[in-house]
Amino acid sequence: MTTGTIVLEGGATRGVFTSGALDFLMERDLYLSHVIGVSAGSCNGVDYVSKQPGRTRDCMIHKEKEYDYYSGIRKMIRKKSLFDMELIFDKYPNELFPFDYDTYFASDMECELVVTNCVTGKAEYMTERKDRKRLMRICQASSSMPLAAPMVNIDGTPYLDGGLADSVPIGRALELGNEKIVLILTRNPGYKKKMTTRAAANIYRTAYQNYPALARAAIRRNFEYNETMRRIRKLEEEGRIFVLRPTIPPVSRLEKRYDVLMQFYEHGYASMEDRYDELCAYLEGR
After folding, report:
1. pLDDT by residue (tens digit) across 65-92?
2. CA distance 117 to 158
């Protein structure tokens, strides 16, 4: 195991790019000592720590209708969620695509999953080393998109998608103090988020009127993301971090087509394969 931190951005189904990249690393038995995952990156992160290449890919890319986790608008109104969270975070890990809890809990790797505290509007970096159900609850909270999924209660506190408060936790990675940081993004180079519109801001304020700090975090998210990207570019130019990004157009965050998702997954795998020697040189300080 190599001392260093790997940071995994979210992006819903864009996370299949990360899955491909991590599958290549796992096949090469390259593991870093610290993992920070946010949103879909949390799902990728736990499968990296449990050393299960192909698992995230199989959970996210499939043709079988019974494995479809996308609820659709009609079911969303009834279930108050765009995704079938019970399927993803209960049946998937415990029945359909078994998660190796034993390997995960026994691992020497530290794994932090980013969630947004709905009361404070701040990011929290959660870990779980013993409780299976709590681990999946944290993953669910980290992946619960605002307006598209209900809040997830953990230890008496409501949480949502970690990307609301810390979309790309490079600052957290720097705080850990590891000299080597590997960042896997799911957007193309130069991508910038458009500023939140007044209409969108009003929707957040109305939807989360009882959680004003959460609404503010949601409204400021795009600004904070772009500031983080500027910081990342500077760190990359200085040679302090290693960044892997897709170089083909990314899939939409709600993409369902098997062939399209598989192509993006394979792009992640090939991208990491192409830059593997460069990554090893970075990690070895060459």
Report:
1. 655 655 555 554 455 666 778 888 999 9
2. 6
Please give the model's pTM, rounded to 2 decimal places. 0.93
Instruction: Please spell the DSSP secondary structure of 143-158, one letter per residue.
Output: T--TTTS--EEETTEE
268 to each of 23, 186, 203, 265, how far by Cα in Å? Answer: 9, 9, 35, 5
> DSSP letter at 4?
E
Distance CA 53, CA 25 (A): 9
Q: What is the mean pLDDT of residues 202-230?
A: 96
Using CA atoms, how far apart are residues 131 and 181, in angstroms rounded to an integer?
A: 28
Q: List C-alpha distances in Å: 8 to 73, 86, 227, 257, 265.
A: 28, 23, 18, 23, 15
Q: Which residues are within 8 A (CB) of 50 and not within 5 positions of it... i.e. 6 or more apart?
A: 99, 100, 101, 103, 104, 107
- Say if residues 125 and 112 touch (Cβ distance below 8 Å): yes
Report the alpha-carbon distance of residue 92 to residue 68 in Å, rounded.
11
Residues 159 and 251 sit within 8 Å (Cβ to Cβ)? no
Spatial CB neighbours of 262, under 8 Å, sequence gap ≥ 6? 16, 61
- From first CA to last CA, the distance across the chain in angstroms is 18
Of 276, 285, 286, 278, nearest to 30 by C-alpha is 276
The residue whose two tokens read 């998210």 is 221
In whole angstroms, give the CA distance from residue 79 to residue 87.
Answer: 13
Contact by Cβ (8 Å): 118, 142: no
The sign of the torsion formed by the CA atoms of 13, 122, 176, 234 equals positive
What pLDDT, on a 0 to 100 scale, did the predictor assign at position 195?
A: 93
Q: What is the mean pLDDT of the chain?
A: 92
Count of residues in the chain: 286
Q: Cβ of 191: how many Cβ atoms within 10 Å?
A: 14
